[in-house]
Amino acid sequence: MTESWQPIAQRKREERDSRIPKEWLLKTLPDDQRLNVLDVPRESGILTLEELRLTEQFDATALVAGLSNGLLKSVDVVTAFCKRAAIAQQVTNCLTEIIFDDAIARAKVLDDHFARTGEPVGPLHGLPISLKDTFKLKGYDASVGVTPFCFKPATINSALVDLLLSLGAVLYCKTNVPQTMAALDSHNNVFGRTFNPANRLLTAGGSSGGEGALIAMRGSVLGIGTDIGGSIRVPALANGLYGVKPSHGRVPYAGQEGGALPGTDKIMIEATAGPIATSQRDCEMLLRAICDAKPTALDPEVLSQTWVQQSSLRDGLVSGEPKLRVGIMRTDGHVTPLPPIQRLMDDVAKTLSTSSAGIEVVDVDVSTFGPACVKNFNGVMSIDGANTWFDILAKTGEPLSPWLSTRLKRRSQKSLNDVREIQAQRTELHTRFLDVWKESGGYWRSSTPSKGKSDRNLDLIICAGAPHPVAAIDRWNSTNYTSMFNLLDLPAGIMPVRTFSERDMQGEVTSTKPLNGWDKINREMWTDFDRKVYLGSALTIQVVAPRLEERRLVEGMTILDEVLKWLREGDGGKSKL
User: Which residues form the active site (predicted)?
Assistant: First the structure.
């Protein structure tokens, strides 16, 4: 064993903290009793009025517009977000690598280029973008919160990092993750825990939890996370943000640090990278820019398909047909949603079906898939037996974080025949789920069934991102509402609807026997918990599209976002979503 883990972790935190300029340090940190710290940047006196305007009144799309036509300077925008990120770090512990000096220097170069040529460098010219710690950036660690990876700066960039730089983006910080990336609450032994800035008693999510907290604090308006079981969508859900998990092959993923041996992803779940943002149109802007950049030169597994070449929901409208046909998935059949989640789905279904937007709503019963997906996902993810991670941690004697210590065990690796059987089962689930999109598949319940011979198809499926509200720290329950769509490789996004209100505290779970242990734990998050803690937290929905239909997904989310706005506005103006 090399040097023990404690001094390594201490030095790493000291290195990170030393990169925050002294004039950006808060004079006093908020009292531990203060649960909501969202207003600390405005109260701090560190940001000028112009910096507050830049970080609060623009989304990424608006910033790019101003930067690309010379109305805004990148150095001003980047400096403002660096300062706000520094404040966010001090109250939520969301950062791992601080890249402020390099970012401001790059912003000046981009400004000089624009002043000299009158042209932006690319579609993301001068825009500050934050990154999850798994991305490799030359000269900086990708430690992913484990001590054996500390002080080993990357010698190459991840494929998406190179692409973002070529598009004119400015990368200025990396964000916290859970140890082993195998938890939905971001805590590790190197950097500690990331807190939800809206309520420090609730989780900020994981594994892209640092991104979620940073963007909620508006220390960033557009960040990149990764997702293998919900790691983009859960932080988006926990922080009332927009987040999109693409199918594998849509966004470059090569060159990540995930703690796995090379090639492991080919026999497990292939993670994907995608945006977390403050607006839905920012998710579309980023995905469009990436696809139009022809990233196949950086990652051989990315499809050679521009945004325009992808199937469009808007372009595919047929006369006499609804503008959008969505299926409402009320349960996964494994864990029954709690009363506030059931109420939210009822509200969403009613709002969509009665709107003037031409949306057809049908109920979709996929409960037979839930238990099968849980079993198969767990089988796929346990192929390695966690041996690689245990071997990595053993190098410095680093223990598992408390939450993982009771859940992650070293087990025997699965045999080749076991792997083959698990993958065969996964393929069967992929094939079976194709029928869910078709009316003839037998999964729909529609009030207006088709009378002709043609087979109608769903455009999107709407479901919860979790069977419970935003969970308390370390109490996230079932992952199946997100992980099943990783298993099936379907693009999926989270979008906020409204906040948890007094009305949502009403309702009790049924007296029937729980479906399983997971269902029992889920009920305890309602029956044996102070429900007032959920007040003001985000209530969100998940939107799912057929495989590799990212353009249709974000176009559909845009339509839904517009229709569901009144639910946000109808909560008495309390929502800050």
Answer: 132, 207, 231
